[in-house]
Amino acid sequence: MSIDTETARRVAKLARIQVPEDDLPELAQEFGAILDFVEQLAEVDVDGVEPMTSVTPQRLKRRDDVVTDGNQQEAVLANAPDAREGFFAVPKVVE
Amino acid sequence: MSNLNNMTIAAARDALRKGEVTAVELTESCLSQIEQADALGAFVHKTPEIALEQAKAADARGHDGADLNGIPLGIKDLFCTKGVPTQAASGILDGFKPEYESTVTNQLFNAGAVMLGKLNMDEFAMGSSNETSVYGNAVNPWRRSGDEAYLTPGGSSGGSAAAVAADLCLGATGTDTGGSIRQPAAFTGITGIKPTYGRVSRWGIVAFASSLDQAGPMTKDVRDAAILLGAMSGHDPKDSTSADLPVPDFEAMLTGDIRGKTIGIPKEYRMEGTPEAIEKLWEDGTAMLKDAGAKIVDISLPHTKYALPAYYVIAPAEASSNLARYDGVRFGHRAKLDAGDGITEMYEKTRAEGFGDEVKRRVMVGTYVLSAGFYDAYYNRARKVRALIKRDFEAVFADGIDAILTPATPSAAFGLGEMIDADPIQMYLNDVFTVTVNLAGLPGISVPTGVDKDGLPLGLQLIGRPWEEGDLLNTAYALEQAAQFVAKPARWW
């Protein structure tokens, strides 16, 4: 399956990864090769097969809906590239 | 006692209990070896102060208790270790020091284990040669005879494999999403087990593909794998997919008696282009299990061929979702921004700078297969094929098969840089024998059983029934005893 440069650009945008314009053709080609490889899946008869959702058959456990952790502002912010006054700081989002 | 670092976990445990050695002596022996082994690129964050402190505490506690008390281990960089750099070998986690401990390392430390440092790996565990690491390559301690070329230790747990094979530590943790414990174990002549999905908590392990990821031990022999797996396993309320099942005493199950067991040999694993040495290894292994009293049965796992393509839809899809968290806001790297850059530019530049090429490729492939219009054709179809692959295994187990014997890898360790011009698919083929096991959530173990004409180690894989790691380890133990693999790499580092 061939992927065009425009599709590669769109996927890079969706993935929020900046890709220089010059690199897009090669990227498109690599996508194409990987998608060609996975194209074999079309040969398999999957009629009536449910997509696998759980690796091992088990019910998810439930617990009481109560606070189990918290009051860790300092630890939460400790690794932030830019934290100020108890918040994560980011470039201006709203004009 | 010299060369304490060469000991197995079991031998060191027994010597510690008898008072023949101290945890500090063991730890110092490993630390001194690590200092001389920078050429292997195995340890990427060394933690000698922590190690010695833990060793002293272990000696102070005495040695009547836990198996791992005072045992020096290496920890793959994927495990969050409190206050110690944890980067998943990625530039995007540069400087990240977790504020918490992963459940696995927490259990190991509670059992008295000593952490020597963090081990090299492929970036976010994506790779089969340890060449995608931001730290640079890990190098296989093994070389082809008469050849000084550097070989890959495999990946993604390449640093773990190199460290154990070179006796820099007594054992190491690894993780396995498509073969990342078993392939490096085979390439370096050590033992590695990926347990049943849910046996070991994933909490605090940097996520790659959550429905496939499992942690497991990488050790010098099967007994050590049993000991270390026992310490890593168990239910964890913080991982909703961790199984609330009792953990058996795996070591106690190592009798070596496999009489009456039925071993399946799957015909679909006879692949075109497999080297003769690996065909022969497989035949020899089959004969060994037969001589040990097992019944050998030819079986069919008809959807094997589709495992790799299904994996290369599902794993990137899950990765694209898991790696969305690396946004330059909460931890790790943030790109320097130009005037006028907004939050979108911050995301895009941060991720472009922080991720390596293979990670970017997989995140974007995952984004594509999950995008509107392609979700059904790729992602849902791959999940249906995955269900069929799992069904193949269920069918043979229902027919009375106890374990399945296959090669672990399609080749011996290859040279670093050898695959650089190959397309990504060539590298993906490394996982052809191991990836089915992750898709089906089964336990699989790689055991070294021979060497090729260049003197490089080769491994066989045994695949077991879900939750029956004890039985699987025992079959592996029987194979190990029959194979008598004792070769070690000649020291050059």
Automatic annotation (TrEMBL), chain A:
Assembly notes: Heterotrimer of A, B and C subunits.
Gene Ontology biological process terms, A to Z:
glutaminyl-tRNAGln biosynthesis via transamidation; regulation of translational fidelity; translation
Q: Which organism is it from?
A: Thalassorhabdomicrobium marinisediminis
> Which is a Pfam family this sequence falls into?
GatC
What is the protein named?
A: Aspartyl/glutamyl-tRNA(Asn/Gln) amidotransferase subunit C
Sorted alphabetically, the keyword list is: ATP-binding, Ligase, Nucleotide-binding, Protein biosynthesis, Transferase
Origin: domain of life:
Bacteria
Q: What family does this belong to?
A: Belongs to the GatC family.
UniProtKB/TrEMBL annotation, chain B:
Which SUPFAM superfamilies is this protein grouped with?
A: Amidase signature (AS) enzymes
Q: Which domain of life is it from?
A: Bacteria
Cite the Amidase domain residue spans from the record: 25-473
Matching entries from InterPro entries are given as: Amidase, Amidase_CS, Amidase_dom, AS_sf, GatA
Q: Which GO terms describe its biological process?
A: translation
Q: Name one GO cellular component term.
A: glutamyl-tRNA(Gln) amidotransferase complex
Keywords per UniProt? ATP-binding, Ligase, Nucleotide-binding, Protein biosynthesis, Transferase
One term of GO molecular function = transferase activity
Q: What is its EC number?
A: 6.3.5.7
Record carries keyword Nucleotide-binding? yes
> What are the coiled-coil residue ranges?
none
The positions flagged as active site in the entry are K76 (charge relay system), S156 (charge relay system), S180 (acyl-ester intermediate)
**Gene3D superfamilies for this protein:** Amidase signature (AS) domain (3.90.1300.10)
Q: What class of enzyme is it?
A: ligase
- Catalytic reaction annotation: L-glutamyl-tRNA(Gln) + L-glutamine + ATP + H2O = L-glutaminyl-tRNA(Gln) + L-glutamate + ADP + phosphate + H(+)
Describe the task this protein carries out: Allows the formation of correctly charged Gln-tRNA(Gln) through the transamidation of misacylated Glu-tRNA(Gln) in organisms which lack glutaminyl-tRNA synthetase. The reaction takes place in the presence of glutamine and ATP through an activated gamma-phospho-Glu-tRNA(Gln).
**Quaternary organization:** Heterotrimer of A, B and C subunits.
* Protein family according to the UniProt entry: Belongs to the amidase family. GatA subfamily.
Q: What's the name of the protein?
A: Glutamyl-tRNA(Gln) amidotransferase subunit A
Q: What is the lineage of its organism?
A: Bacteria, Pseudomonadati, Pseudomonadota, Alphaproteobacteria, Rhodobacterales
